[in-house]
């Protein structure tokens, strides 16, 4: 059944770009009229005479040539519209030595070439292109007697102040994060990557939302085949709205049935910049601070930018702890179930007697006991995320203490089970990637089930199944377990261990970068 679902999913993605759109999503094919009033009426009709639609008609200088500006209240910068467009036209033309021409086409050329002192300015001749710009925050200048319109960049909506990402805090490192403005986000990257080979390729996704999307990469580093594949997958996106980068991630990932994330997401500009220098690609979407990084490997989700900001021995220790935490987060409850239910002889005698004494009177087998406590822990974590931040932290800590103590006092669970679940929760919090932590939360239940059926052999079986799945998983066609499978010993020095900076002279081999060398001094190794 899963094979049929996969085959159907691949056929849909392959043919999505060829599917005809519904009639409601057909583009507007109307051309502009040379009559100003007709154009204004058409704009009001197309936008439904919307309350936030602003229009202002006026005469150019002391002449009788009428024109109008059209913009959206809140999206366009009203001060700029007044100072750079309205006032500029009136003042510069009225004080100009040359007279205003009689031909509307010549007036349009005069305004376009000499009067409007704006960097981003262009001409359009159809309602579709003009309204797409107006709905993105630009201002349209229409002149009576011509079927062309001048579109002026006047974007100026309110944006959130730059803050440190709450989910990716560091002890040492930059404190800024991405915002919901795609232009602010490209600026954050430009500040860190002052390389003229840095490219921002823009496009629009969403038939109705028309969301701005940017693909960022360093042109003389990135693998061209990777870049072409990413752009090909993005071109297949055929959906009405794209509200968040998660839409993009789910559309272009390799295996939608896998619980493991195949594209990394972050709100940290320093992490994106470091990824670009390695030869990866970043995808930015307007309206969200979450930027996608691809391709990725399993090890990348256990890395933190702080690993490189501290000395190598500190970074290595932190990574080792994260790998240990990953194992504990997945297999701690399953080992408890297996040992208590099937293999108590593997437990030291004193500890086995102690565990047996604490379980005296517990009405549930170890599997149900673990399911009950792990599910309660998941509910507390989810409640802590959805509640306001100060209240959420209180619920997570106090709720865990109160429920655990009450469950032990009532004889529902044993104290050892509470300790195991607490260890599992702490290990989950040590994982730097929330995406990977979510995957581990799902896999944990699978490991618990196999442990309840087969004991320790079930735990080993679940580990083997997970490793087989990871070895077959890819991220945009690149091996997920690289550099272990396939083996690339050169990259091992920056995987579980973090070698000194002077040893990291090459970019990851798995990325097939055009320029493999990142450090050109000293011996090349």
From TrEMBL:
It comes from the Bacteria. The chain crosses the membrane at residues 281-302, 323-342, 418-438, 445-470. GO terms for biological process: spore germination. One of its GO terms (cellular component) is membrane. Keywords: Membrane, Transmembrane, Transmembrane helix. The keyword Membrane applies. InterPro entries: Spore_Ger, UPF0353/GerABKA_families. Belongs to the GerABKA family. This is Spore germination protein.
């Amino acid at each position: 059944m899963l094979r049929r679902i996969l085959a159907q999913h691949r056929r849909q993605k392959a043919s999505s770009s060829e599917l005809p759109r519904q009639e409601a999503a057909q583009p507007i094919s109307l051309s502009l009229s040379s009559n100003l009033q007709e154009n204004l009426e058409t704009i009001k009709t197309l936008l439904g005479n919307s309350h936030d639609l602003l229009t202002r008609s006026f005469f150019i200088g002391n002449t009788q040539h009428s024109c109008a500006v059209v913009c959206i209240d809140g999206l366009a910068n009203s001060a700029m519209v007044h100072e750079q467009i309205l006032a500029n036209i009136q003042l510069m033309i009225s004080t100009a030595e040359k007279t205003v021409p009689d031909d509307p086409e010549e007036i349009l050329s005069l305004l376009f070439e000499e009067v409007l002192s704006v960097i981003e300015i262009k001409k359009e001749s159809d309602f579709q292109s003009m309204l797409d710009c107006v709905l993105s925050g630009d201002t349209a200048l229409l002149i009576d007697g011509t079927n062309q319109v001048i579109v002026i960049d006047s974007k100026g909506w309110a944006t959130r102040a730059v803050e440190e990402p709450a989910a990716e805090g560091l002890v040492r490192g930059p404190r800024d994060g991405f915002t919901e403005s795609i232009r602010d986000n490209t600026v954050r990257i430009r500040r860190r990557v002052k390389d003229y080979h840095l490219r921002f390729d823009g496009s629009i996704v969403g038939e109705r939302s028309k969301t701005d999307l940017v693909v960022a990469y360093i042109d003389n580093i990135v693998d061209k085949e990777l870049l072409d594949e990413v752009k090909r997958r993005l071109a297949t996106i055929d959906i009405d709205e794209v509200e968040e980068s998660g839409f993009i991630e789910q559309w272009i990932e390799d295996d939608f049935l896998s619980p493991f994330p195949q594209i990394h997401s972050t709100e940290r500009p320093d992490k994106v910049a470091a990824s670009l220098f390695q030869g990866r690609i970043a995808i930015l979407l307007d309206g969200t601070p979450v930027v996608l990084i691809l391709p990725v490997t399993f090890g990348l989700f256990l890395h933190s930018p702080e690993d490189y900001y501290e000395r190598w021995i500190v970074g290595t220790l932190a990574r080792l702890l994260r790998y240990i935490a990953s194992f504990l987060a997945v297999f701690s409850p399953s080992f408890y179930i297996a040992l208590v239910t099937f293999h108590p002889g593997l437990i030291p005698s004193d500890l086995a007697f102690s565990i047996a004494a604490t379980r005296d009177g517990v009405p549930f087998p170890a599997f149900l006991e673990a399911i009950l406590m792990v599910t309660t822990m998941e509910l507390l974590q989810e409640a802590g995320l959805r509640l306001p931040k100060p209240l959420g932290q209180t619920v997570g800590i106090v709720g865990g203490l109160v429920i655990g103590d009450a469950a032990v006092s009532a004889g529902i669970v044993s104290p050892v089970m509470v300790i195991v679940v607490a260890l599992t929760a702490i290990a989950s919090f040590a994982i730097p990637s929330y995406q990977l932590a979510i995957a581990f939360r799902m896999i944990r239940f699978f490991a618990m089930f196999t442990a309840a059926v087969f004991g320790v052999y079930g735990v080993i079986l679940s580990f083997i199944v997970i490793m087989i799945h990871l070895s077959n998983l890819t991220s945009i066609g690149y091996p997920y377990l690289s550099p272990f499978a396939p083996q690339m010993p050169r990259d091992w020095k920056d995987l579980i261990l973090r070698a000194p900076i002077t040893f990291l002279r090459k970019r990851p081999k798995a990325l097939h970068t055009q320029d493999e060398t990142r450090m050109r001094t000293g011996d090349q190794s």
